[in-house]
Amino acid sequence: MESFFTSLNPQFSVLAMPQWIDMAAVVVGAAFGGLTATERKLDLFGAAGLGMLCGLGGGLIRDMIMQRGTVFMLDSPWAIPVAAVAGMVAFFFSGLFRRIDRITAVVDILSVGIYTATGTDKAVVAGLTFVACLLMGVLTGVGGGMLRDIFLGDVPQIFRPGNLYACCALLSGAAYYGLVYMGLVKGVAVVACVAVCCLLRWASLRYNIQTPSQVDLTPRVIDYTRRLKARQPGDVSYHIPYRASRYGHGVRGSQEPTRPLTVAEQARHKRVEEQERAQLKDELKAEIKEELAAEERLADAGQATGSAEAIFGTPETMDRLEHRRGEGDGPSDGGTDGKGA
């Protein structure tokens, strides 16, 4: 087991990733860019451009933000040509890639894990904080797809509700960071990072685990606060009953009665509930009145506009009448002058 660990500082050297692994990840990302170009009916140059964005965009964002060392796509002599050619190949042979869509999906998540490990490692070597290392890893892993969606005028896919994708990169980057600082050899840490990324993606698809969509807890908090305000000071036995609120959900208090309520307490609680019901009814009536008044004002405004147009005509009709009146006044004036002469 000692061969899997190292006593060297994790910031001592950059991860020496084999070049063929880097190029394989670039090819996969660029191929997805070319397929997107065929779906959007773009031309050959669009396929090459999207191929370079998807294959090299994440590393470009990382290097521009960090400004440490060289830019990968400019330093490597094969990065840009390979990405452009892969995008064009996917453009011409899109049917072949769609037939092996499962294989390409597996290779895609593998490339995300590899990119995440390389981005996180570069931030670790630069001495950045834990959060910054995670950010660099995630941007390297999914930044290319994000740039693709932005250039196409869409909301980036990683920001939409769906199965886990960016979260896989985030958690796998955290796993890589922790394993490296525990002293694990970086090559083994990369394998673990890719495995975590693939397992999370598989679990998300297998059990339909999705990112949470919009949730508004404001009505629930407001309604529960109103119920708490009804408590009497010093009354430890007061129980907030469950009821269906006007917002469409139920509210239940956390305190349970410690003893049976007396007749007086029951009567008092009944009066409080009746007052709350009356208050809710008044609020609903006021809201309904406001809505009806607003609708009446809109209806009156529409009738007033229609009546004015019926009496005076539309603006286009008035302009036409003024024009005809001007034409009629001209000849009549001329004829009068002729008779007078």
From TrEMBL:
Keyword Transmembrane helix part of the UniProt annotation: yes
Q: Where is the Glycine transporter domain?
A: 20-93, 106-179
Tell me one Pfam family matched here: Gly_transporter
Q: Residue spans with biased composition (Basic and acidic residues)?
A: 317-328
Which InterPro entries does the record cross-reference, listed alphabetically?
Gly_transporter (IPR005115)
Region feature (Disordered): 248-278, 296-341
Q: Does the keyword Zinc apply?
A: no
Recite the UniProt keywords alphabetically. Answer: Cell membrane, Membrane, Transmembrane, Transmembrane helix
Intracellular or extracellular location(s)? Cell membrane
Q: Residue ranges under compositional bias (Gly residues)?
A: 329-341
Task: Report one GO cellular component.
Answer: plasma membrane
Assign the protein's first listed, main location to one coarse class.
membrane
What residues form the membrane-spanning segments? Answer: 20-37, 44-66, 78-96, 124-146, 184-203
What membrane topology is given?
Multi-pass membrane protein
PANTHER family found in the cross-reference section: INNER MEMBRANE PROTEIN (PTHR30506), UPF0126 INNER MEMBRANE PROTEIN YADS-RELATED (PTHR30506:SF3)
Give the family this protein belongs to, as stated in its UniProt record. Belongs to the UPF0126 family.
Per its record, how is this protein called by name?
Glycine transporter domain-containing protein
